[in-house]
C-alpha cells in the first residue's frame, strides 16, 4: 500500500500548480456559449469572403481609358486626274476574293502555287498568279470585261475563270467594271461604299 501512497503524493506534487477543474453547470454553459460564438464568427467570415473578393475585383477591374479628343486640321486634298479612271479595279476589292474565284474555277489538274507576299493588283487591273505546275495565270479586268490568260487552260476554261472573277467582283458589292466615260454623270452614292 505504500506504493499507492507514494504514487498519489507524487501526482499531487505534479498537479499542485494546475488550476482547478471546472465544476457545475455555469462553467459548462459558459464554454458552450464561447464555442457557439466562435462557430458564428467562422460562418460569418466564410460568408463575407466571397463578397469582399467580389468588391475587390470590381474595384481593380480595368476601365476604359478616357477618350481624348484632339482637333486635327483636315488635310487639303487636291483633286488628281486619273487617266485610267474606270478601267482599273476600285480600291478595296479584296484580292482574296479574286484568288478564290480563280482557284474555284480552275479545272482538275491545274492549281495555284503558293502566293507571294507582295501579290497585288497591277497597272491596268492585272493580277499575276503563279501556277503549281509552273508558269503564271494573268487575270485582267479592263474596259468592262474580265479576262484570264495562260497556256495551261483552254479558251473555254479561261472564260469560265474570268467569269468567276467578275462574279466575285459583283458579289463583293462592287459596281460593274466599266470603261471610263467622259460624258457619264458622277455617282456620289458609290463613293460612300
Task: Please characterize this protein's 3D structure.
- This protein folds into 2 domains: 1-71, no CATH class; 95-171, no CATH class.
- Strands 1-2-3 form a 3-stranded antiparallel sheet, with helices on one face.
- The chain has 193 residues and is mostly helical.
- The protein is 42% helix and 9% strand.
- Keywords: Membrane, Transmembrane, Transmembrane helix.
- The chain crosses the membrane at residues 40-61.
Number of domains: 2
Largest sheet: 3 strands, antiparallel
Strand fraction equals 5-15%
Shape: elongated
Give the uncertain stretches in residue-range form: 79-91, 177-181
Structural class comes to mainly alpha
Question: Number of helical segments?
Answer: 5
Run of helices and strands: HHHEEEHH
Number of β-strand runs: 3
Termini gap:
115 Å
Q: Would you tell me the overall average pLDDT?
A: 75
Describe this structure in a few short sentences.
The chain is mostly helical and 193 residues long. It is built from five helices and three strands, in the order αααβββαα.
Provide tags for this entry.
193 residues, mainly alpha, elongated, 3-stranded antiparallel beta sheet, 3 strands
Mind sketching the topology for me?
Elements: H1 2-14, H2 25-60, H3 95-105, E1 126-130, E2 136-142, E3 145-149, H4 155-171, H5 188-191
Antiparallel strand pairs: 1-2, 2-3
Helix pairs in contact: 3-4
Amino acid at each position: 500500500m505504500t506504493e499507492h501512497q507514494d504514487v498519489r503524493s507524487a501526482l499531487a506534487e505534479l498537479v499542485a500548480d494546475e488550476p482547478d477543474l471546472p465544476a457545475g453547470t455555469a462553467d459548462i454553459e459558459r464554454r458552450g456559449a464561447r464555442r457557439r460564438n466562435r462557430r458564428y464568427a467562422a460562418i460569418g467570415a466564410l460568408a463575407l469572403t466571397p463578397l469582399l473578393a467580389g468588391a475587390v475585383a470590381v474595384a481593380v477591374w480595368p476601365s476604359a481609358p478616357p477618350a481624348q479628343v484632339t482637333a486635327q486640321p483636315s488635310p487639303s486634298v487636291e483633286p488628281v486626274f486619273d487617266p485610267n479612271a474606270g478601267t482599273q479595279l476600285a480600291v478595296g476589292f479584296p484580292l482574296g476574293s479574286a484568288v478564290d474565284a480563280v482557284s474555284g474555277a480552275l479545272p482538275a489538274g491545274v492549281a495555284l502555287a503558293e502566293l507571294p507576299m507582295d501579290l497585288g493588283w497591277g497597272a491596268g487591273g492585272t493580277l499575276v498568279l503563279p501556277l503549281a505546275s509552273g508558269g503564271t495565270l494573268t487575270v485582267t479586268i479592263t474596259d468592262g470585261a474580265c479576262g484570264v490568260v495562260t497556256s495551261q487552260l483552254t479558251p473555254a476554261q479561261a472564260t469560265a475563270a474570268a467569269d468567276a472573277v467578275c462574279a466575285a467582283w459583283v458579289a463583293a458589292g462592287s459596281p460593274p467594271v466599266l470603261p471610263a466615260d467622259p460624258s457619264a454623270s458622277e455617282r456620289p452614292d458609290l463613293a460612300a461604299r
